[in-house]
Amino acid sequence: MNDTLHPNKYLVLAIVSLGTVLSGYVASSLDIALTNIMNTFGFTMDNVTWVLLAYSIPYGATLPIMGKFGDQFGRKKVYVAGLVVFTAATMLVGLAWNSASVIAFRILQGLGAAMFFPNAMTIVADAFPPEERGQAMGMWGAFAAAGAVLGPTVGGYIVEYVNWRMLFDSIVPIAGAGILLAVLVLQESPRQAVSRKIDYLGGITLVTGLSALIVALSQGGKEGWTSAYILGLSALTVLSLAAFVRIESRVAEPLVDLSLFKNPTFTVANLVGFITFMALMGGLFLIPFFLRNILGYSPIRAGLSLFPLIGAMILMAPMGGKLADRTGGRTPTMLGMLILAVAMYSFHTMTADTAYPFIAVRLALMGVGLALTMSPLSNAAMATLPKEKMGVGSGVFNLFKNVGGSVGIAIFGTFLDTRTTFHAAVLAEYVNTASSAASQMLSALQGGFMQSGLPAVQAKGAALAVLQGMIAKQAAVIAYGDVFKIVAFIAALGVLAATLIKSDKKPAPEEEASEESDENLVAVTNE
Fold first, then answer.
1. Local structure of residue 6 (DSSP, 8 states)
2. Contacts (Cβ under 8 Å, ≥6 apart) of 391
3. 3-state secondary structure at position 157
4. Does residue 320 surpass a pLDDT of 50?
5. Percent of the chain's residues with pLDDT above 70
6. pLDDT tens digit string along 289-298?
7. CA pair distance 115, 491, nearest whole angstrom
8. DSSP helix/strand/coil, 385
9. CA atoms of 129 and 291, how far apart (whole Å)
10. Can you state the percent helix, strand and coil of the chain, rounding each to 5?
């Protein structure tokens, strides 16, 4: 019966997952290619961040709008159009001729991704019956996250051994195949019987507020959180979003129906999604830096080191979905967030001598926690929404996750800098030339440099530089430990928030059949 109602559901899942994998892959692999792009087009450290912001601003700011368009004009149509825009923009980034063209094409990339990502999530939810939706959302979520982790690995190899342009050009044939399959296989959702009138003023205030927020979060660490620039952006964010809420509560046909937040399960799912991605993106921001800066891994080795996280997510995501289908979203989400909190806390014990197998175990544990969290959470957010609002609901849910990730990177990056500075000052106070241990180490280092042929004065300077480097590295190790503890605390807050998710346990198919038989028997008896 379900197969008749939902034909080609696994093929639909595979096609939609292809697009989301490519989106995550391109977005994350750019981090590896940034240095090469800087050298090609003469970007500086001050302005190269706009290559990243050119994607994240249009993507994050238009997610609810694109989800609304999917509800209104057809999800397949908006999904395919988004994938076409994303593919064309990706190809153009690879062909870019100057810095302005790179930024312009990255903006198009972000818009394309915003068009297809929330509608992809809704297409998967539409294709599967309710009793299988959790497992399907789990598999889709795992592939989406896998794309983000594959960027530093496959992308890192292409950048190091081919060139950065091939990073973008190489996905065009795959994306083209995804577009063709989407056109041929996906079925269009019914258009909603509503006016085609668009709330332009609401859209302008929403995009303005979210754009200002994303820029403030991304630039706060560099510009200073109390600078006039960041405070001005913060004020613009508050005023724009306040205006948006006022407009949406008064307009006859709102862009984002604020009544969605009267649904407690949807609201809590967004809150937990925000917290989860705050912890996830904070962790994924910290771990590669630790592997490269503390353990000395190469970019490719650091990327490959994240595979236990991918493998655990892909293997465990269907189980998380099945658990959600059987017990509802609350139990697996709480369990997943608890495991994620434990995994993040375990990272604080890493040192400059930690062997990779111990790191791999922690990464696998992190993947298990995410797999048990994301699919039940996505299903909880979507399951209680009417079909005509699933697109905009998906956009809002993904927006909360996106903003949560941006907040996590901004806050934890700032924490890492401040804690490193603090611990470096403390260590420098105790480890100085008056310290006997420091004096002995300096003497040993100076002697080693003198044996290699350096004059005494130069040998002493080199020894001091080595000692200062050791202090800086140890300060960074301690700072990473501090920040991982904070990330774990944030994840633990997600456990508490998940307790508010409504438990919507679904009866097993045999129980449903039994209930139907009983109802039929009662009806016959009454007759």
1. S
2. 67, 68, 69, 70, 71, 72, 75, 118, 119, 122
3. helix
4. yes
5. 82
6. 788 788 888 7
7. 29
8. coil
9. 43
10. 85, 0, 15
